[in-house]
TrEMBL record, chains A, B:
Family: Belongs to the transcriptional regulatory Rex family.
Pfam family name, one: CoA_binding
Organism of derivation: Desulfatibacillum alkenivorans DSM 16219
Alphabetic keyword roster: Cytoplasm, DNA-binding, NAD, Repressor, Transcription, Transcription regulation
Residues where NAD(+) binds: G88, V89, G90, N91, L92, G93
Identification of the protein by name: Redox-sensing transcriptional repressor Rex
High-level lineage: Bacteria, Pseudomonadati, Thermodesulfobacteriota, Desulfobacteria, Desulfobacterales
One Gene Ontology term, aspect cellular component: cytoplasm
Amino acid sequence: MHKIPNIAVIRLALYAKHLEMLHNDGVELVSSVKLAKMCGANPAQIRKDLAYFGQFGVRGVGYYVNDLLNALKEVMGTNRTWRLGLFGVGNLGKALLGFEQFAQRGFIFTAAFDKDIDLVGTEVQGMEISQSEDIKEVIKGPGCFDIAVLATGADRAQDCAMRIVEAGIHAILNFTPVRLVVPENVFVENVDFTVRLHALCYSLTTGSDVTQRHPR
Amino acid sequence: MHKIPNIAVIRLALYAKHLEMLHNDGVELVSSVKLAKMCGANPAQIRKDLAYFGQFGVRGVGYYVNDLLNALKEVMGTNRTWRLGLFGVGNLGKALLGFEQFAQRGFIFTAAFDKDIDLVGTEVQGMEISQSEDIKEVIKGPGCFDIAVLATGADRAQDCAMRIVEAGIHAILNFTPVRLVVPENVFVENVDFTVRLHALCYSLTTGSDVTQRHPR
């Protein structure tokens, strides 16, 4: 398989999300033009992105929604369950534990950690909270996870990341503003809500709608 | 100005974010290759995206960080302050009110609404909570805002969106999983954390790092 850029993977995830909506709505076929409109992309870009992985379209017909969705999930590795470990059970952490979309898409929290000793040992959203110092013990049991979700305060982020890495976890979804320093073989994805605001600012400023608008 | 696709605006916001980091680090010049690496994009894509707006690069030299940053901010409309109104002061809402990155990038919460009458009238992160029924009154005063941030429960999202639209607000950052139905002239940007997880799933599955990795 070719190496594809990050932004193409984010686009594939977006296409998969909209294909899933179409599938749930009982739609069997979609044109690249319609899929592009749903995703706020352009049809040529979609055809180019999908060409990384093979031929999914039928000329003059469009894409078979379910086939393309399954192919994308296989390519992206999302045709399986991924286990998440939460670090930082503050307001954001609690919100993340309660997000139904995670479970619906196969992302299951199996462990949660916090520094607050009043929280440790209690349950939040049915999840028992552990100390991050105990991570190596926790992941030996049912608390084992694939991806760390970092939602601590900024002051704790780098320390926590080092503990995660030392425990042998190779992927971090980073909600903190800290630029984490981790070894080359550890994957870090930074979440920044302000980036999503920019499409709105641009649309309001220019009057040109560049948001990902769902079709009505 | 040409109409540019949503995904290009998201990329511009990403470039601006990394240019801001370089600027804060005192870096004056950056090559498209280095900027691309920081953003997880490719240099040809960056040159193409920036070509929508004019000539910012100097052949053989690179980009002047501050000039490019200011030009991007002007293009995107982020060279000013934007006021945000929060709907739903639950765990996620509280976390959003406390995010320092918003204020640092010029996004200021000026109003917050919740349905919980025990919360209404109290202060959260220094912000007095109002009822969403009172939105038209609130925006006549210092609670006036440009962009609604929707962080209610899914069951309240559409009702709340209609109230926002009726009050004359034209932009919604939607953290709920609900596909909002709004008039054509209202901009909606949907935030979905699971999409960010997919770059990690892909990297873990293929061993090929497609995350937005910061340079070390």
